[in-house]
């Protein structure tokens, strides 16, 4: 469940549908269907497109919707051969289920760009440029928005040409399914991507370093992007940080206890 600045709430369900609730009117605004063929595990509003949401599911698909019309118009299948071709082989045998997605808040868009971070069932973490890559990898199921839609996506307006960054075990990443991802909210907001997984570990990836490398054209090894590894005794179900001076990381694992770690 996630809320938007326009007083909408979105809830993804096990049937693959997404309910958009109008909080002010206290009613169901739209039901988004026919985008996912399995459980819809995660949903996020796109802060730079007020009438769009992006969803991920256990069908290995990312879908961008115009929820004003209730239609999907961009679909990326992470399980397709094209999306696998750039990944390292031998990661793990799980499909590329989408367990969690994260998009940056509007106040850090200038630094991070219009990206989406994806926690994958095969142990990878993808950092994807929504404007360039998702549009370029449309599948047969993609549907163009009809005339009159609130959403006016135009791929040509996106000048950020950064491609996809795939963070996997070859870079010190996870060796089992990644269950959750988040941007760090402490210190320099958005500096780190934080991922937690079924391998009982948490990884902090330095996103600012990657952006600086990309902008300078540096060919530096992406192994430098792993800033910190935290080994735990249990699988990670969820995590988040707080916008405070203290660099605290809140973790929910498979126990009944919520844990707070300091990553400073």
UniProtKB/TrEMBL annotation:
<keyword id="KW-0853">WD repeat</keyword>
<dbReference type="InterPro" id="IPR001680">
    <property type="entry name" value="WD40_rpt"/>
</dbReference>
<feature type="repeat" description="WD">
    <location>
        <begin position="33"/>
        <end position="75"/>
    </location>
</feature>
<dbReference type="InterPro" id="IPR015943">
    <property type="entry name" value="WD40/YVTN_repeat-like_dom_sf"/>
</dbReference>
<dbReference type="InterPro" id="IPR019775">
    <property type="entry name" value="WD40_repeat_CS"/>
</dbReference>
<dbReference type="Pfam" id="PF00400">
    <property type="entry name" value="WD40"/>
</dbReference>
<feature type="repeat" description="WD">
    <location>
        <begin position="171"/>
        <end position="207"/>
    </location>
</feature>
<dbReference type="InterPro" id="IPR036322">
    <property type="entry name" value="WD40_repeat_dom_sf"/>
</dbReference>
<keyword id="KW-0677">Repeat</keyword>
<protein>
    <recommendedName>
        <fullName>Anaphase-promoting complex subunit 4 WD40 domain-containing protein</fullName>
    </recommendedName>
</protein>
<feature type="region of interest" description="Disordered">
    <location>
        <begin position="138"/>
        <end position="160"/>
    </location>
</feature>
């Amino acid at each position: 469940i996630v809320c938007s600045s326009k007083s909408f709430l979105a809830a993804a369900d096990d049937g693959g549908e997404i309910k958009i609730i109008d909080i002010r009117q206290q009613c169901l605004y739209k039901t988004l269907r026919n985008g996912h063929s399995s459980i819809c595990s995660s949903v996020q509003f796109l802060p730079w497109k007020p009438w769009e949401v992006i969803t991920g599911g256990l069908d290995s698909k990312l879908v961008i919707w115009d929820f004003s019309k209730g239609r999907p118009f961009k679909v990326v299948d992470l399980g397709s051969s094209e999306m696998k071709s750039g990944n390292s082989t031998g990661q793990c045998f799980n499909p590329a289920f989408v367990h969690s997605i994260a998009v940056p808040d509007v106040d850090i868009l200038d630094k991070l760009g219009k990206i989406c971070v994806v926690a994958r069932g095969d142990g990878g973490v993808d950092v994807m440029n929504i404007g360039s890559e998702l549009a370029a990898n449309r599948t047969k199921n993609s549907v163009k928005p009809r005339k009159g839609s609130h959403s006016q996506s135009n791929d040509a307006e996106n000048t950020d040409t950064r491609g996809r960054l795939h963070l996997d075990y070859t870079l010190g990443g996870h060796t089992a399914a990644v269950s959750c991802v988040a941007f760090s909210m402490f210190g320099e907001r958005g500096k780190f991507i934080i991922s937690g997984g079924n391998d009982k570990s948490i990884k902090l990836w330095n996103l600012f370093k990657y952006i600086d490398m990309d902008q300078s054209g540096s060919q530096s090894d992406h192994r430098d992007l792993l800033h910190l590894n935290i080994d735990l005794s249990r699988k990670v179900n969820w995590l988040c940080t707080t916008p405070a001076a203290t660099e605290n990381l809140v973790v929910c694992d498979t126990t009944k206890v919520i844990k707070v770690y300091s990553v400073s």
